[in-house]
Structure formats: C-alpha cells, structure tokens
Amino acid sequence: MMKPLLEVEDLRVRFHLRTGTIEAVRGVSFQLGRERLGIVGESGSGKSQTGRAILGLTPPPGEVTAKRLAFDGIDLQTASKRTLREMRGGRISMVMQDPKYSLNPVMTIGEQIIEAYQAHAKTGRAEARDKALAMLEAVKMRDPQRVFSLYPHEVSGGMGQRAMIAMMLVTDPDLLIADEPTSALDVTVSMEVLRILDELVSERGMGLIFISHDLKLVSSFCDRVLVMYAGRVVEELEAKNLREAKHPYTQGLMRCLPTLANDVHPLPTLNRDPSWAL
Amino acid sequence: MLDIQNLNVVFGTGRLRVDAVKDVSFTVKRGEAYGLVGESGSGKSTVLRAICGLAPITGGRVLVDGRQVTTPRDKTFYRTVQMVFQDPYASLHPRHTVDRTLSEPLAIHGEKDAEARILQALKEVGLGPSFRFRYPHQLSGGQRQRIAIARALILRPKVLLLDEPTSALDASVQAEILNLLDDLRRKMELTYILVSHDLAVVAHLCERLLVMRHGEAVEETTAEALRSGKASNEYTQSLIQASQGFTRKPSQATAIAG
Fold first, then answer.
1. Cβ neighbours of A248 (radius 10 Å)
2. Distance CA A126, CA A184 (A)
3. Which of A94, B6, B122, B173 is close enough to A177 for a disulfide, judged by CB 3.0 to 4.6 Å?
C-alpha cells in the first residue's frame, strides 16, 4: 500500500464543562489510504466528533489532542491557520447531515458552489461558473442550469444533498468526510445519492470517511469499518466480514435490527456490558 | 375496528392546492397491526393525522368501531384512539415532569385515582416509579419514547396510531421499543396502525400493510408476501431492494475488485 493519506493516532476530544470533563473521543487510531472507511456507532459514541476533529471543527470549549494527526504528511496540529484554511474545503472536505441546515439559505446553489471553488482556485468568474455547472451535472442534476439559480429552499432534500456533494467535490479534494450524508433522506433517494457519491469517489480516487449509525448501510458501502462505542474503537473489520464480527457490541448491533428475511419475536436486545466502555 | 373509505385530504386552495391523500381506503380488524409505508410526502402520516383530527378530512369516511367520527372529535374518540409521535424529543413538554405529562389526559377525562394509574402506566412501559418526577431532558431517547407510549396508553385506548415511533432512535433502542409495542399489543389487545418508511420495521410488527406513493395507495400486501419477495408492484420491489442496503452495479463491483 502507498503512504497513508491520513494518519490518526490516539485522538482525544475533551470538553471541559462546569460539571466536569467529558471525553467524547478517547484514543482513536486509524490510517486511511485511498479507500472507503466507515465509522459506525450509536448516538454519543464519538463518531461525528472524530470526523470534526480531523478538520479542526471541534466546537469550543472542546480540546483536541493526538499523538499524531497528519494528512498527506502534513501535521494538522502544528500547521498554521493559513495552511489549515487552504486544506479545509480544498483538499479535505466534509458533507454534513442535513442540507436544510448546512446550505446558505440566502444564496443560490450556483453561487455557493462558485464561492467554494473560488476560495481555493484563482480563477475568473466565467470559468468558476462552468466548473460549477459541470459539477452539478456530475451529481446527476437533470437541469443544471435551472438548479444553478435556485435557492436551497426550492429544492428537495435529495437535490440539496447532491448540491452539497457537488460543492464539496468541486475543489477536487483528496479526502471526503461524509457525516451521515443520507440520514435525512428517504431510502430510495439515499440510495441514489450514495450511488453518485460512490461513482465520484472511485472515479477520482479519493479517500472517503463515511460516518453513520446504520451498520447495514455502511457495511454494504465501505471497504473497511470501524465500530465505535463510548468514544473508543471497539472493533475494526473488513466490511465483507461483518458477519464474523467478534465484539459482542457489533454482534448485538447486527442482531437487534429487524430484517425482512427472518421474523424473530421478540427481537434480541443489546445488553451493554460496562466493561466495553473501559 | 377502523374503516377508512375513499379518504381525501386537501390542503390549501387554488394555486396552492395540495392533494395530500387521494382516495385511500383500508380496514383494520380488532387486534390487528396495520402498516403504512412510503417515502416522505407519500401522505402516510397525513392519513394518521386525518384519523385523529389533526388534518382535515376533505372527502370520504373514517369509521371507528362502526361509527363515523365527528369533527371536532369528542372525548369518546380519544378514549378509543391515541397517537404516538415520531420524535420523543419534540413531543413531550420540556417543562412538564413525567407525572404532569401523564396526569393531563386523566384530568381532561375526569379520571380518578391518578397516582395509581400513573404508576401502573410507568410499570407497563418498563420504567420504575423513580422516573415519575423527572423532566424529559433527564431521560434518554428510548425512555422518552416509553413515556410517550405510556401517555397514549393511560386512557386505555383500543387503537394506537404510531407515527414512525422508532425512526429517531438508535438501532438497539429501536429493538427495545419494538419489543415493548409487541408485548403491549398482546397484553392489552390493542389495534395498531404503524407508519414507517422502514419496510423491515413494518414487516416485523404488522401483519398487513399498505404501500403509498404521492398520496395514493400503491398496493395492499401482507408481511408474509414481503418476506417471500412476492410483492407484485414495481415500486414495492424498489423499496424492498433499498432496504437491503447499498448495492453496486455488477460492472462497477468487479471494477473495484479488480
């Protein structure tokens, strides 16, 4: 394998609150090449905070420490603000959960894509516009010209999410972090969005970190899966070997989902062992 | 128990007219669990809301226990039919304790013996008496949904309308709530109408279901038929496929493998 794109070692995210210190992420380590990595966990497992910490988006009063946090050899902890700014959105970008909240409501979709592009590439407006239109086409918008001049409230959830993917990929990043990109969408629409994401990622040879609570979805989409529980990675496995998961938490998560194939009454529930969180 | 005939729900007039539900009919027998499945905007939630009076019935009839419902609904209706909402973070009053949330329906209906009833209701949903004086923010998502179910059950209704009761919850908590709903139905001989976008959840809890799209009924089928993959309708098939997780097109899959 080539040099890893992203190296994370002993990542910790702490929040110092009035009531004490909460450690949301407690020593996460992984390496990422140009592959699709899934991070799965339930709410509060620290999966989103892991994604945010990589981009330096941990909200104050959060504190991020790591033995090593490097992207393509550049240490993200000691890098200057300027380098980080160039990196964010340029070489690493992030797709958020809900397009309703993460697109600017008073700018047209086209303007937003142009803004994202011009923040990282010194080009004229005409070229940026062409690039934005091409990107809208790449995410399979039926009428890119029309979508270009629409405001976010005028498009559906699936279109909004595709517009966001277009915006995030317009700068040709090396790494894309997708934080629950399809949770706010319908099943059939989310499959369509995933298909587009999948095509673009494999075409451009990007690295992808896919954060989700949906174990079934992640295992069908990614190459490798990290299972998080209470701020730690409890298990790392190849997505296709998910059935042979060893950790009782992963097994429990797999079993407690109702499936169409077999009808189990009652559903097995997850008995949380306090030792998992240690 | 429940008979819906040619239900139409229309919002707005003129240019803003939206036909949210078009000519939907189904019947639910006593003690049965019936599912409504579809994407957002398919009108499945609107059907529930129309039944319990939160959306206007523009056309058609809704019969509960053989009698047509009145508008506004009377107290007898709400003693028979209660609803559990999707998001337990939004459906409980943030500044009311569990005790106050649960005593409100009792007060409205002039029920006596509130204390015993509240403790009983908490027990039924698997929570102890220690939860009685807590506020919603002191509860987890699953516990909140249990309170929402307790609130709906405290008047001993016969029909429970469940609007995506588990979609805001984690997978492991979803399993607990689904088991609870299953148990309660058996113990109290309840009739359920369950709305969900998740075919697996509906097939788990319900015997029969209606697939909806764009406000229209696409197909009425049984959980059994879904399981054996016998759904005839193309749209139902696509929903089944989507619920199995992400699939790559064969050509692409080999490209990645190679």
1. 16
2. 34
3. A94
Q: Output the six-digit token pair for A278.
A: 């240690």
Q: Does A83 touch chain B (CB under 8 A)?
A: no
Q: Classify residue B74: in a domain, yes or no.
A: yes
Q: Residues A112-132: pLDDT tens digits?
A: 999 999 998 888 999 999 999
Number of folded domains in chain B? Answer: 1
The distance of A261 to chain B (nearest Cα, Å) reads 6
Q: Domain A1-90+216-278 carries which CATH code? A: 3.40.50.300
Please provide the DSSP assignment of B87-119 as one string: -HHHHS-TTS-HHHHHHHHHHHTT-S-HHHHHH
Write out chain A residues lying below 8 Å of B197, CB-based.
Answer: 186-187
The pLDDT tens digits of the residues spanning A33-76 come to 888 999 998 888 889 899 999 988 888 888 999 999 999 888 98
pLDDT tens, residue by residue, A242-263: 888 889 988 888 888 888 877 7
* Interface list for chain B against chain A, based on CB atoms closer than 8 Å: 39-40, 141, 170-172, 174-176, 178-179, 182-183, 197-201, 203-204, 223, 226-227, 238-240, 242-248, 252, 255-256
Kindly identify which residue of chain B lies nearest to residue A221, measuring between CA atoms.
B246
With CB atoms and an 8 Å threshold, state whether B252 touches A202. yes
Opening angle at CA A77, ends A72 and A83, nearest 5: 65
User: What pLDDT, on a 0 to 100 scale, did the predictor assign at position A275?
Assistant: 80
- Mean pLDDT, all residues of chain B: 89
Closest residue in B to A201 (Cα) is: B256
CA distances from B185 to A65, A71, A249, B47, B145 (A): 50, 54, 29, 21, 16
Of B197, B204, B245, the CB nearest to A217: B245
> Does the model's ipTM exceed the 0.95 cut?
no
- For A260, which of B176, B200, B255 is closest by C-beta distance? B200
Judge whether B122 lies within some domain.
no
In a domain, B225, yes or no: yes
Closest residue, chain A, to B240 (C-alpha): A260
Angle in degrees, CA A262, A263, A269, rounded to 5: 105
Token pair of B179, please? 């088991």
Report the pLDDT value the prediction gives residue B249, as an integer from 0 to 100: 59
Domain assignment present for residue B134? The answer is no
Cβ contacts of A256 on chain B, cutoff 8 Å: 171-172, 174-175
Measured CA to CA, the distance from residue B136 to residue B149 in angstroms comes to: 14
Is B112 buried (19+), middle (13-18) or exposed (0-12) by CB count in 10 A?
exposed
User: Which chain B residue lies closest to A263 (C-alpha atoms)?
Assistant: B204
pLDDT of residue B210: 94
Q: Is A199 on the interface with B (CB under 8 A)?
A: yes
Domain boundaries, position B233: 2-92+158-257
Q: How do residues B46-90 score in pLDDT, each as one tens digit?
A: 999 999 999 999 999 999 998 999 988 999 999 999 999 988 888
**pLDDT value of position A260:** 80
